[in-house]
Amino acid sequence: MHVLSFRVNRVFAVTVLFLLSEIVMTATCTSAVAAGARQLKPATYTFAPGPDFQFEFQSRLIEAVPGDVLELKAGTYHLHSGLNLVTDNVTIRGAGQDKTILSFKKQRDGSFGLLASGDNLVLENFAVEDTSHNAIKVLGAENVTFRGVRTEWTGGPKTTNGAYGLYPVQCKNVLIEDCIAIGAADAGIYVGQSTDVVVRNSRAEANVAGIEIENTINADVYDNEVTNNTGGLLVFDLPGLPQKNGRHVRVFRNQIFKNNLANFAPKGNMVASVPAGSGVLIMATDEVEVFENRIEDNRSFSVSVVSFLIYGKKLKDQHYDPYPEQVYIHDNMIKGGGTDPDGELGLLLKSIVGTPLPAIVYDGVTAPRKADGQSLTLANNGEVGFLNIDFSNLTPENIAAGKYRPSADVTPYRGTGVALKPVALKPHGAPEPSRNTTLNVYYDAPRKLSELKLFQGNGVSQQPASDVIPYDLITTLFTDYTSKHRFVRLPKGKQVRFKESGVLEFPEGTMLIKTFAYPKDMRDPEAGERLLETRVEFLKPSGWYGYSYIWNEQQTDAELSLGGGEIEVDWIHTDGQRRSTRHLVPNANQCLSCHSHHDKYVPIGPTAANLNRMFDYAHGAENQLAYLKRKDLLSEAPEMGSVQKLPAFDDPHSGSVSERVRAYLSVNCGHCHSPGGNARTTGLDLRYLQQDPAKIGVWKTPVAAGRGSGGRSYDIVPGAPEKSILMHRLQSNDLAARMPNIGNRIVHQEAVELIRQWISQMDRTPEAASE
């Protein structure tokens, strides 16, 4: 007997009532609905801890308009899923970083605490605790303020902690002040691939890296306290990222002391190589000025300046500069460090030069075009030691032959360097009156799916109405073994324009429809199925929008659920075993996690190559593109024989193993892992058209992976699937590791086996054997 229980989060009722009736606003609110195009006025909303907070707050984040202030009263808020915000000019304000606490200790969905992408964002006076992965990530935003925010993993330093506390990435004009970051398994305060940044008056403690500035241009880091981390303050550049070669970073007036915590980063991450006891570490970044800091009692290296080459990682990025240049270190108070060096390098130097190690250590590796001594300038740091470790010659053979010559001679490096200009942040602009098109679309959305008249009868048979066209894809997005019914409704008299790559160009007024269902018994199609949700995407004059309708238990209709939901379901699988899961219906902001290209909503599936297949229409089987062309619904289409056809992941006759895997990764991962997708900051590009092995992950070092690395060093190690991060992430049930992280609660075993075969068949090099 098929058993399916049905439970929808209470946000459904909250959201629908909120959207389709007069807005009820707490505190300083006025009616936001005007005739015609609605001008929505900003307001202040107040929230208190309670069982419905998760859903009510996420609903408000979906419905936010520029200028909104969301106030969180004192107390502990228990959340089970990450929060998403995409609106500009929003402030989230608590009662204090020790009074308002967002606790994710029982998190079961989403690997982050808060994921935001809106400009002019202010986050202040609250704490985020115990997230599965990153605490607060802000992606691609301009004018971002973190003020008085605390992030913490309360169980102490553990490899299983999340990677980053405060995590603005690819942002512009960022201010982090009066914040606290504790317990991150990568970096407490991490600023990546950003421009114009100030980090001040903050404290980082008990993280692997206290404060890390990575691939960032124009940053001032000052008046911070950095203690009891593995590495105190790091200025890094890493290869393989969209924004390369950071520069112009000033580090001054910081207290950087006793950063001697044992490294607890998951293996495979770059930060796992940082020796315990590192005070200031500068790697590969140009134009760095370090001055007026107190750097004290860091047991390995008080200050170290190194190239990327020192870590022994393979370098496949031709546009990456691995050498630090124009580093100026002056007027610092340095004492008490180097007494108990850690890590492979620290222990080796200890055996060669003894302890304490000199206060300033330089690897001596310079760019081929530079003369030695031009990359580093030292002045007025007191009577402290210096060591050029001559890393280029640091091999056992050279040591034995007497060719290795570390030098304590500081003379070539003394002088006056270039003083960098202060970073001047721009003030946030005042929010303009909002005509929030997204929210207007939500207001106009029918409450019932049946009102859209997409199907015959009540829709349970999924028989399309006369103006709705069914279609299917060659390789599909995997969602926990659900079956999917796909349809398109085109406006009368309009055509789709053919595009060789990317999603077809649909006319304004198009609707794309996808229903998710579970067969009751996957061995017996005649046993029927249970409809779960129908997602509808609309193309309006201002762009694409999407949201979900959840089917009721009676299968008579589906209701609008902007806030998402969950459906508990079980079925008999193809192997005869009963399986169960909780199907996640994403909220409207979560949809953007996948359907985002340069922060604009886009469809994913209907490309020409993925539609180039036969379909059983009522009149018989016909190629889908040919059908649209014959019906005069597709313009500018070439002859069908010249249209690329995507391989079918599950059909060995459709292409080689490599081609089928690349098709699968493109459909399932490429929408995020692409230059415009939400995972663009990783530098991993899994689109089918990408041919550069390094960009699809071969010998690529991970970025922001945290424990998602699975202790592995590269995304793909040729010939060694067991050493490849990609395999770990596809097989993991860990929230912080599994990919994709939405709609993926069951491992797609058939895909895992095919990808394992693909990696195994890659040429195994001697490098792979040594990893």
TrEMBL record:
Record-linked Gene3D superfamilies: Single-stranded right-handed beta-helix, Pectin lyase-like
Residue ranges annotated for the Right handed beta helix domain, each copy included: 114-236
SUPFAM superfamilies, sorted: Multiheme cytochromes, Pectin lyase-like
Organism for this UniProt entry: Gimesia panareensis
Annotated Pfam families: Beta_helix
Protein name: Right handed beta helix domain-containing protein
InterPro entries, sorted: Beta_helix (IPR039448), Multihaem_cyt_sf (IPR036280), PbH1 (IPR006626), Pectin_lyas_fold (IPR012334), Pectin_lyase_fold/virulence (IPR011050), SO_2930-like_C (IPR022269), SO_2930-like_dom (IPR022442)
